[in-house]
Each structure stands twice: as structure tokens, then as C-alpha cells.
Amino acid sequence: MVDSKIKFYYTVAKVLHWFAAFIIAFNLLSGWRLGGFPLNQKIVLIMIHSGIGVTIFALMLFRWWWRRNHKLYAPPGWQKKPSMLLQWIFYPLLLIQPVIGVIQAAYIDYEVRAFGFINFSALAADNEKLHALFLQLHGQTALLLIVLVLLHGLERTRGALV
Q1: Distances in Å between the alpha carbon of 72 and those of 67, 94, 161?
Q2: What is the pLDDT along the chain (162 residues), one digit of tens a residue?
């Protein structure tokens, strides 16, 4: 009975991992293209992008809770394994990235509504300099996340080949 419960916990963790990986990859890759669209299309795409960002934030909180609550992926000496360390770097970054996106949207000069109803642009007055700063920070964090995703994939592939 205990083994089946643990297997279930790991199965849920794997499903959450791959769901998160898919939507994170989608948002990271689609975010780079947002600047090239006309404003009316850009607003719709940013609404989708920001909604997915909120989903990623909530999903990462849930994943973190799930792992800690069920004591998953914490073998002895886990801090010495590069793939485990890399995974734990992801959690704070994947929580910070949507927050930076919300702050960026708060300073933009048009409405940004996640899911069409959470109005991030109403959080602060328009400020071009602060918007530019947080846009740059959002992009740099996205680039760091892409590099870490690639490193994570290489590490997991290397481990499978050895």
C-alpha cells in the first residue's frame, strides 16, 4: 500500500513537471515574438502570455508544495547532484519571472489583462522608464531560464546515456 502511494505521488509530480515544462517553454519562446505584432494583436497575445504566466506562478507554488509535502526528490546528498541543484534554482526563478512580468505590465501605457480580467496595468501609473527597465529584466530572466532549461535537458540526457 505504501509503495503504491509513493508511486502515485511521483506520478503526479511527473505529470506536473511535464505540464509545467510545456507551458513554460511555450511562454518563454512566444514571449520573444510579442514585440513584432501590431498593437491590437499584441494586446491579445500579451493577455494570453500574462494569463499563462499567472498559471505558471500558481503551478510552481503547487509543485513546490507537492514536493515538500510528500518529501519527494530529497535523497541523501541531493545537494551534490547538479541536476537536483538546477531544479531547485528553477523554482525561485519561475516564481520571480511572472512577478517581474506583472510589474512590467503595471507600468505599460495600455491595458494588460491576464485571462482578460486581471488588470495588471491598473496597479501603477504609466511610466516608460520603469516599464523599459522591467521589460529588460523580464527578457534577461527569460534568457537565463532558457539556458537553465537547456542545461537541465543536457544533464538529464547525460545521466540517461551513462
Answers
A1: 5, 19, 24
A2: 578 888 999 999 999 999 999 999 999 998 888 888 998 999 899 999 999 999 999 999 999 999 889 887 666 665 566 667 777 788 899 999 999 999 999 999 999 999 989 999 999 999 999 999 999 999 999 999 999 988 888 877 775 555
Distance between CA atoms of residues 150 and 152, nearest Å: 5
Rounded-to-integer distance, Cα 15 and Cα 3, Å: 18
pTM of the model: 0.86
Domain that holds residue 86: 2-161
Helix axes 82-106, 128-161, angle to 10 degrees: 160
